[in-house]
Amino acid sequence: MKKFTLTMVLLFVGAVSFAQIAGYTSFEEPGIVPGVQYTDTGDPAVAHDLVNNAGEPEVDFTSTGGEMGFDARYEPYDAPTNGLTDGDWVGVTDFTGDVTAFTDGSQGYGMGDIDGNYILEFDTVDLTGYTGVTLGIDYFIADTGYEGDGTLNEEGSDRMRIYVKDLTNSTEIDVLNTEGSDINDLAIQGAWQNGLVNIPSGVMAQLVVEVRTNSGAEVLYIDHIVIDGVLGVNDQDKSHFAIYPNPTNSDVINIKSNLSGDLNVAIFDVLGKQVVNTSLAGSTLNISELNSGVYIVKITQGTATSTQKLVVR
Ligand SMILES: [Ca+2]
Ligand SMILES: [Ca+2]
Ligand SMILES: [Ca+2]
Ligand SMILES: [Ca+2]
After folding, report:
1. What is the rounded CA–CA span in Å between residue 233 and residue 20?
2. Which ligand is the nearest neighbour of the Cα of 87?
3. Cα angle 98-49-67, degrees, rounded to a multiple of 5
4. Do the Cβ atoms of 253 and 243 come closer than 8 Å?
């Protein structure tokens, strides 16, 4: 009996954590419109959002809970003339003429012949409870005829930048930044490169890709984006929330909060798979679908977030 109690105590106070993907996309979920260019109908002299056009490659994507969403927009340079109004190879594509093959699946995202600046912003990823976070992205730079060093926002000053915005600390973490260099001199064209950067624990993070080119042959392709880390118990806002009973052998648990507003509850199993994601109006959550085991419960209410361990017997 003593031994049993000690084991239970250790289980209860012991840290629990596991590798977990916080955000990913391989561009496999968006539809494909092969052999068609994207034609912007906006004014190339004015910065504006780019939107999906029927029958053309998708430049924007709204996440349905799997792959991350993304949103493209355009900013002019000194004399943009055409921008993307002349029909350009941008958006989700399965064209492998430049890249031979995508690094994951059969689709990626291409950005060529912008005649201005193309800015692709991904969904913000909430890294609350995560440590040891990295972002990986595969990128492929086509062509070798780049001009300028990208320091000026003008034609003939080609520039490519892939970076992570740490929105919590208002900092930016470069994966690739060709500003100050002729892209040719970097000698990274014509083959897939893997960018990998560390991201601070617990922040809100957003991947951004920016491309300024002026030739149809100058294209940046991206694929296989993964943000992952170790998700563990985070006591930061634990004082606001209580889960009981815990451990439990009941079909329901209660989540008590001293804050107001709807509670968002996500539960992950030991493999890091999300098994519950719901909004609670009351305090009772049905967990009858969960097998016996250890879970991480992520509770969010307003700006308060807590990740806590749940033991289901
Ligand atoms: Ca892919
Ligand atoms: Ca857009
Ligand atoms: Ca163009
Ligand atoms: Ca160029």
Report:
1. 13
2. 3
3. 60
4. yes
Cα 146 off chain centre by: 29
Q: Give 103 Cα–ligand 4 centroid separation in angstroms.
A: 25
- Ligand number nearest CA of 53 is 2
Architecture of domain 2-16+233-312: Sandwich (2.60)
What's the burial of 135, exposed, middle or buried (CB within 10 Å: 0-12/13-18/19+)? buried
CA of 139 to the centre of ligand 1 (A): 11
pLDDT at 307: 83
Ligand 1 mean position, distance from CA 7 (Å): 45
19-231 has which fold?
Answer: Jelly Rolls (2.60.120)
Residue for token pair 């199993």? 269
Q: Do domains 2-16+233-312 and 19-231 have the same CATH topology?
A: no
Q: How far is the CA of 259 from the centre of ligand 2 (A)?
A: 36
Closest CA to 310 of 241, 261, 228: 241
- C-alpha 127/C-alpha 167 separation (Å) is 11
Q: What is the DSSP string of 41-74?
A: -S-TTS-EE----TTS--S-B---SSSPPEEEEE
Could you tell me the pTM of the whole model?
Answer: 0.78
Amino acid at 122: F
Which tens digit of pLDDT belongs to each residue from 104-149?
Answer: 999 999 999 999 999 999 999 999 889 999 999 999 999 989 999 9
Q: Which ligand is nearest to the CA of 40?
A: 3
- Separation of CA 195 and ligand 4 centre (Å): 23
Q: In angstroms, how far is the first alpha carbon of the chain from the final one?
A: 18
- The residues spanned by each domain of the chain are 2-16+233-312, 19-231
